[in-house]
C-alpha cells in the first residue's frame, strides 16, 4: 500500500469521539475520513470509544491507524469501504455493531450521499479494491464481522482477531453476481476464536488464499464455499472442540496443503491445485507461507495492539 504515502498526504489526528453524520465536526473521525480531500492518514490522540450514528464511508487513499491508542468503534454503526481503493484499516477494536435505518450521511470528498438500511457488519467492503484490514479485533456484531461483496478484489485481511461471532466473514453475497468471479482475497496470520460458529470465510464465485491462520474451535464449519468458489487452504492450524469437519461444501473447489489438523479435525478436499489455480495471483502478490508449526507464534500478536 505504498501508494497511500505521498508528500501531499494530510496527517490528521482524531481528538473528539463525537459523531455527526451530516455535519462532521473538526477533530472527529468522520471529519477526517470525509472532509479532507486527497490522501489522508488518520491517527488518534488518545484512547477513545466512538459510537457512529450512521455508517462511516471511507474513500480512496485513506488510512485509519489506531496504533498508539486503544480505539473502539462500538455500539452503533460501523465502517463501510464503498467504491474506493487503497484503503488501510489498522489497529481498531470493532464490536457490537447495530443495524441502521436509511438516511443521509457525509461521504468522502465532502459530498452528501443517501444510504439504504444497513446490516450490522463490522467492516463492509463494497465494489472496492486494494483494501488492507490489519491488526484489528472484531466481535459481537449483529450480522457479520467482515463482508466483501459486489466486485471487490485485491483484499488482504491479516493479523486480525475474530471472536464471539456467529457469521464471521462473507466473501460475495449473491451466487448470481458474476463480477465476484474476479474477487481475490488473502486471509493470513489471523486468529479465529474462541466462540466463532461459521464463515471463516464463506466464499462465493471468487478465489481466496487462506494461509497461516489459527482456528480455535468452530460450530457449523470453519471454511465454506459455493458457486464455483476456489479456496487454497495452506498451513493453517485447525483445533475443534471435538471431531469436526473444517469445510462446508456447495459447489466449490477446495485444496488443502500443509494444514495441521488437531483434536479430530478433518478436511474434505475437492480439487488439486495446478498451474491454472496458482496463476490466480501474479508474482507481485505471492508471499512465502510458513510451516503450520509456526502458526501459533505468527498469530500470537493478532488483533489490535497499542504500540
From TrEMBL:
Which GO biological process categories is it annotated with?
A: pectin catabolic process
Q: Which UniProt keywords apply?
A: Calcium, Lyase, Metal-binding, Signal
Q: Which organism is it from?
A: Punica granatum (Pomegranate)
* Catalytic activity, EC: 4.2.2.2
Cofactor dependence = Ca(2+)
Domain named Pectate lyase: which ranges?
47-244
**Pathway per the UniProt entry:** Glycan metabolism; pectin degradation; 2-dehydro-3-deoxy-D-gluconate from pectin: step 2/5
Q: Which PANTHER family does its entry note?
A: PECTATE LYASE, PECTATE LYASE 18-RELATED
Reaction(s) catalysed (UniProt annotation): Eliminative cleavage of (1->4)-alpha-D-galacturonan to give oligosaccharides with 4-deoxy-alpha-D-galact-4-enuronosyl groups at their non-reducing ends
Q: Which SMART domains match?
A: Amb_all
Pfam families given for it?
Pectate_lyase_4
**Cofactor binding mode and count:** Binds 1 Ca(2+) ion. Required for its activity.
Please provide, alphabetically and separated by semicolons, the GO molecular function terms listed in this UniProt record: metal ion binding; pectate lyase activity
**What family does the entry list?**
Belongs to the polysaccharide lyase 1 family.
Q: What is this protein called?
A: Pectate lyase
Q: Which enzyme type, at the first EC level?
A: lyase
Q: Which ranges does the record mark as transmembrane?
A: none
